């Protein structure tokens, strides 16, 4: 029998450690209580701000029900990203990845209510950013808005909030298994405010300069996917490679069923993402629903065929990843193109994203671990540019014709929107990580070796 002697000095160290933790807990309780009290007191100055006078006859119950349902579908996509990514990483990091998506869901939800929504959809300032007139959702109530005339302004706000939430969640795939948690928290807040919110205003906000130029982005090809994809590339370069990274060597996925489950939930939620962007239970939402499903199917089959040709086996993970790439590509075009065009978009985007992943992994030393740049960045680029080719005004009178339908100018506008978005997101993201580097961008080597599940969160994904 082996016994461990506990010396008086070790007992003192343990007691001191417990005392420090208790003091830290007490300080956190006090700080959070103060924040809660301040928010509670401030609520008197926002009394009625989320209600307001409205004409009940102006609200369409069917449209409202559909947009709220779509918002819930998009919300499910954020933890679905966690499962999709979580299945791809090593078993010692699966909890950390899913946890990060839930952190972002909570963090950006609050940021969006306090300031994010106002920066995107508030009164335009020079075509660059929204004002603070909707700070704390002041004036965002039951009455419809200029953006959605048949549903409460609050419904539009919460639907758009789900887009703001999922965008930074997509980025985490580029630096899984090595990011320092506290740095991630600060980065998400800064990135959402300084990168996502301005880009979203440029494209979707009344008065936004890309919006005024006529750039078409029905559900977020530029705003969500290009911004996240090129932010992921910048993050991978700023943070550096994982320990043991080998060029051309794929990450050993710990749970393929998780990947397939995540992809299936993303496919399901994407109907809310794209069809919900019609902001009404309308024929346009039906069209967006159909082309979303069709493009995903075409890209899934494309990736399956390419993986079959490369590896002599039709990979399940490749098929699932291809579906996601097709969903990414159809997103900006979903409200402007027909079913046959969506097949073309799915196939072309499937080829582009597969080749970009191949080139990144085989010919560069960039450790974009889960290929956020290839799937979302280049998938978004492909879809946004092809919107300028296949868009039809006959499908959406609020849109425009593309190159194939006699309007080459739209193609040029799409290319400009793509270039501006990717350059801004890449540069600002890289700068943010450099500014945050004194805090430490990545965990210590021993924590990376142990795995973030235990080292950071103290929880295991599997107990076999």
From TrEMBL:
A GO molecular function held by the record: ammonium channel activity
Taxonomic lineage from the root: Bacteria, Bacillati, Chloroflexota, Ktedonobacteria, Ktedonobacterales
Superkingdom field: Bacteria
Stretches assigned to the Ammonium transporter AmtB-like domain: 65-462
NCBIfam families from the UniProt entry: amt
Residues spanning the membrane: 25-46, 66-89, 101-120, 154-176, 183-204, 216-239, 251-273, 285-309, 316-334, 340-359, 371-391, 411-433
Organism: Dictyobacter alpinus
UniProt membrane topology term: Multi-pass membrane protein
GO cellular component, one term: plasma membrane
Protein family: Belongs to the ammonia transporter channel (TC 1.A.11.2) family.
Name of the protein this chain belongs to: Ammonium transporter
